[in-house]
């Protein structure tokens, strides 16, 4: 059977807006639990450390979704997938809002993270629909939605929990996911009948792409270095802000994270630059911005100005780099966008987890300057991917 796929150049503004909005709403679900661990612990009579299992299962669930769900986008109708995943995520979040115990909440939140990989289904579809000369711009609009959802989730979650309790966070997330997900389905084109590929064949093909495609490997390496460096800094930033001499409250330190929203505004600019100058140059610029921001932040223990400037610039460097690196990865074979995106996102996510762990260790052992040096080491590793593929 011959596959019937959406035609290149058929990406409308309405569809792009829907994809960006859906990406922002659904990706926020992964981060909803982070600011409400204290209230969750109090409800179930557990310590905050124990209640942190909800965040852990969410991260593990998202990793499983990246590996086991996204490749299906190369075989199934992605329109139907977005609808089914949105509905299932909403159901699991609603269950989380009603969870009678901490173990039940952890399981439901973890399963919701597995199914909330909708943005990574949408991105390859947007790339396929966009005119080849505008793929970077199109992808960057969806990434702008992603970064807005990631940065905004923590603030909105904390505010909702303060007003109506932590259960309202999951309830509102369920409602928004269902409404926006189903609306997005209305504007997405159908993939029609596609060539059937066995599920295990999809998974077995992943190492082959990584082995055969040097452009994919280098894009993954650049992004892995960038995301590891970002998480090294972002995981420990609140610690230095709440410590003397700055003495921020936890809430005030969280608001500093809103500076990251500047990167969402600049995402389309980065995407346009990718279309004009190519992903390799823009990927290198992203790493350079991250390195400069990290160097500026080194004296942050005694300089709030250095921390604030860096807090605004670090997400910009990450966003610029991702706009380029993901474009390079998916351009290897747009027809296999789901599998290529699995490789790209999973390598990035695992590197980010490594960066978080390394940042926490470096802060405890060497203080904030040690965190910055660790981030620079990760960036140096990422820079090894700046080489033109021949």
UniProtKB/TrEMBL annotation:
<feature type="transmembrane region" description="Helical">
    <location>
        <begin position="368"/>
        <end position="386"/>
    </location>
</feature>
<feature type="transmembrane region" description="Helical">
    <location>
        <begin position="220"/>
        <end position="241"/>
    </location>
</feature>
<feature type="transmembrane region" description="Helical">
    <location>
        <begin position="49"/>
        <end position="70"/>
    </location>
</feature>
<feature type="transmembrane region" description="Helical">
    <location>
        <begin position="105"/>
        <end position="127"/>
    </location>
</feature>
<feature type="transmembrane region" description="Helical">
    <location>
        <begin position="280"/>
        <end position="298"/>
    </location>
</feature>
<dbReference type="InterPro" id="IPR020846">
    <property type="entry name" value="MFS_dom"/>
</dbReference>
<keyword id="KW-0812">Transmembrane</keyword>
<feature type="transmembrane region" description="Helical">
    <location>
        <begin position="15"/>
        <end position="37"/>
    </location>
</feature>
<feature type="transmembrane region" description="Helical">
    <location>
        <begin position="139"/>
        <end position="157"/>
    </location>
</feature>
<dbReference type="InterPro" id="IPR036259">
    <property type="entry name" value="MFS_trans_sf"/>
</dbReference>
<keyword id="KW-1133">Transmembrane helix</keyword>
<feature type="transmembrane region" description="Helical">
    <location>
        <begin position="169"/>
        <end position="188"/>
    </location>
</feature>
<feature type="transmembrane region" description="Helical">
    <location>
        <begin position="82"/>
        <end position="99"/>
    </location>
</feature>
<dbReference type="Pfam" id="PF07690">
    <property type="entry name" value="MFS_1"/>
</dbReference>
<feature type="domain" description="Major facilitator superfamily (MFS) profile">
    <location>
        <begin position="15"/>
        <end position="390"/>
    </location>
</feature>
<feature type="transmembrane region" description="Helical">
    <location>
        <begin position="253"/>
        <end position="273"/>
    </location>
</feature>
<keyword id="KW-0472">Membrane</keyword>
<dbReference type="GO" id="GO:0005886">
    <property type="term" value="C:plasma membrane"/>
</dbReference>
<dbReference type="GO" id="GO:0022857">
    <property type="term" value="F:transmembrane transporter activity"/>
</dbReference>
<protein>
    <submittedName>
        <fullName>Predicted arabinose efflux permease, MFS family</fullName>
    </submittedName>
</protein>
<dbReference type="InterPro" id="IPR011701">
    <property type="entry name" value="MFS"/>
</dbReference>
